[in-house]
């Protein structure tokens, strides 16, 4: 990535000066800003489709000022000053635009401008190098795909919005052809290339990352009828696709693009959103990078937008947690996974279901649990989040009247560690059989046990478990992990010796969980 950024910098220098040996031109410095406006036109109606209005009414969510478009009169006045807005946000009543220092001062003095804030760099695709096809059959087994299949749940009639980097080849991949052939890709919009003719995102590749969204689609609803391989749970869903990231470069892929994309999906009535993008560290200007302490759920604009989508628009937003778990200068989740209302998804290994090394952990300063849940993925949390999105689509098909928060609660409560979550894997891996019981209002099987321990050691009885090598989370509080281990029982007994600072220990047997509280 650093090599790519260097090439971009060279091209910019060549464009500005004509030659690296020539004297640089005295061009004004231009940066991008959000321009927050004071009010809206009271005579203009909200920009919502009939389906979006019906969704709000059914869930008793009000239609308010955030649903009205940005004032066309204010945009016209900005254009008259030589300012060219590149994006609009009705939720935040703002437009984004490149401004020189002089223009910034001029705009700030306008009577209809409330504030002017600089955009920071930092968008990265939360995926490590990935394969040409997402090999996710294992995660289907982990989440009990057969339980949904037996109930006839395939995501049918559910609309899913995918905000990503690109969808090149989505109609030609064998596991996505069934969706393309039935017209399942309903609308596609490019928020990166807005000028000129419509860009064919499925048949045009601009960057190396333009198939990232294609792989995400495979993890949501991929199914190969010839080979019989199921890659995702929601293969009968309908999809609305938005490209908001300009590739895997070392600067933000336009935060305003993401905000506009989710507002567009809201206006269409789409309630389920998957985004496998995250804001973390940038490289173009290190002074403007996000810091781990800023992953607090409210610092970044994208987190505020995601929270608004949850609280005011009734959307279930599923986000990849990030792949910085092995980066000891960062380690924590990226934004918008830090927003309280989103369902942030980490990644587990397939054998023990504990945290795979790259998966980002939840900041200890947060008053709520992150990540929320996890599931198996070899290729980054970018492909863990869409696996959960397919899971959510099956639940929405089963009961379309559920609110976004009810859906989020069912998914969390169906996870195998619930209620003993931690900041490594959240509540663990959602289980379809448990989710179906919750949907029906039936009691869950008793698979948890609370044990109180005194002293420095305890022997835990594992004789009832089929798993004799288990995952152990050593915690310094009810949810913050000191370290995770794989331990083996001896003759059905697991010996736990208390670590310094350890207050809680979770013993994860996959089919059952024991929570040890040290006194």
Helix fraction bin: 25-40%
Per the CATH scheme, the topology name of the largest domain is Rossmann fold
Count of domain modules? 3
How large, in whole angstroms, is the Cα Rg?
Answer: 24 Å
| Widest β-sheet, arrangement of strands | 7-10-6-11-13-14-15
User: How many beta strands in the DSSP annotation?
Assistant: 22
Distance between the termini: 49 Å
Can you tell me the CATH architecture of the largest domain? 3-Layer(aba) Sandwich
Strand % is 15-25%
CATH superfamily of the largest domain: Peptidase S8/S53 domain
SS-based structural class?
Answer: alpha/beta
Calculate the mean pLDDT score and round it. 88
The CATH class of the largest domain turns out to be Alpha Beta
Total number of helical segments? 13
Choose one word for the global shape: globular
Q: List the uncertain runs.
A: 1-28, 128-136
Characterize the main sheet.
7 strands, parallel
Describe, in plain words, how this protein is organized in 3D.
The protein has 3 domains: 28-118, no CATH class; 125-439, Peptidase S8/S53 domain (Rossmann fold); 448-518, Immunoglobulin-like (Sandwich), CATH 2.60.40. It has a 7-stranded parallel sheet, sandwiched between helices. Mean pLDDT is 88; it is low at 1-28 and 128-136. It has 13 helices and 22 strands. The longest helix has 18 residues, at 381-398. With 519 residues, the protein is of the alpha/beta class. It is globular. Helix 8 crosses helix 11 (381-398) and helix 9 (255-268) runs parallel beside helix 10. Belongs to the peptidase S8 family. Keywords: Hydrolase, Protease, Serine protease, Signal. It comes from Fibrella rubiginis. This is S8 family serine peptidase. Residues 1-22 form the signal peptide.
């Amino acid at each position: 990535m650093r090599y790519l950024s260097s090439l971009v910098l060279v091209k910019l220098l060549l464009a500005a000066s004509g030659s690296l040996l020539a004297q640089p031109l005295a061009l004004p410095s231009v940066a991008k800003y959000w321009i927050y406006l004071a009010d809206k036109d009271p005579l203009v109606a909200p920009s919502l489709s009939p389906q979006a209005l019906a969704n709000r009414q059914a869930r008793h969510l009000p239609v308010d000022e955030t649903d009205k478009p940005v004032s066309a009169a204010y945009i016209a006045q900005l254009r008259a000053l030589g300012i060219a807005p590149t994006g609009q946000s009705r939720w935040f009543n703002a437009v984004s635009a490149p401004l020189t220092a002089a223009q910034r001062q001029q705009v700030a003095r306008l009577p209809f401008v409330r504030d002017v804030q600089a955009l920071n760099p930092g968008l990265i695709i939360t995926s490590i190098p990935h394969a040409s096809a997402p090999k996710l059959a294992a995660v289907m087994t982990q989440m009990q795909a057969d339980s949904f299949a037996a109930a006839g749940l395939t995501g049918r009639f559910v609309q899913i919005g995918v905000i990503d980097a690109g969808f090149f080849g989505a109609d030609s991949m064998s596991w996505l052809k069934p969706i393309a052939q039935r017209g399942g890709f309903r609308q596609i919009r490019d928020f990166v290339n807005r000028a000129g003719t419509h860009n064919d995102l499925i048949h045009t590749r601009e960057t190396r990352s333009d198939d990232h969204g294609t792989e995400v689609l495979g993890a949501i609803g991929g199914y190969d009828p010839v080979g019989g391989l199921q890659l995702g749970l929601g293969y009968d869903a309908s999809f609305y696709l938005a490209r908001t990231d300009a590739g895997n470069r070392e600067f933000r892929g336009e935060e305003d693009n993401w905000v506009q994309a989710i507002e567009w999906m809201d206006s269409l009535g789409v309630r389920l959103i998957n985004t496998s993008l995250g804001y973390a560290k940038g490289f173009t200007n290190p002074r403007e990078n996000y810091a781990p302490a800023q992953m607090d759920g409210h610092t970044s604009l994208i987190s505020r937008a995601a929270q608004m989508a949850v609280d005011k628009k009734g959307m279930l937003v599923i986000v990849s947690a990030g792949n910085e778990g092995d980066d000891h200068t960062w380690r924590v989740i990226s934004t918008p996974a830090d927003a309280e209302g989103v369902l942030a998804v980490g990644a587990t290994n397939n054998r023990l279901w504990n945290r795979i090394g790259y998966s980002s952990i939840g900041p200890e300063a947060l008053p709520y649990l992150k990540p929320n849940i996890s599931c198996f993925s070899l290729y980054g949390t970018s492909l863990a989040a869409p696996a959960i999105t397919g899971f959510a689509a099956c639940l929405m098909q089963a009961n379309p009247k559920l609110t976004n928060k009810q859906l989020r609660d069912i998914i969390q409560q169906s996870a195998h560690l619930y209620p003993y979550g931690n900041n490594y894997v959240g509540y663990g891996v959602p289980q379809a059989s448990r989710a179906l019981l919750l949907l029906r209002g039936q009691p869950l099987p008793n698979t948890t046990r609370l044990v109180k321990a005194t002293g420095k050691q305890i022997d835990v009885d594992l004789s009832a478990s089929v798993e004799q090598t288990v995952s152990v989370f050593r915690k310094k509080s009810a949810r913050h992990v000191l370290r995770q281990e794989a331990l083996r029982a001896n003759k059905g007994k697991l010996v736990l010796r208390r670590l310094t600072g350890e207050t809680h220990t979770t013993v994860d047997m996959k089919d059952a969980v024991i929570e040890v509280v040290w006194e």
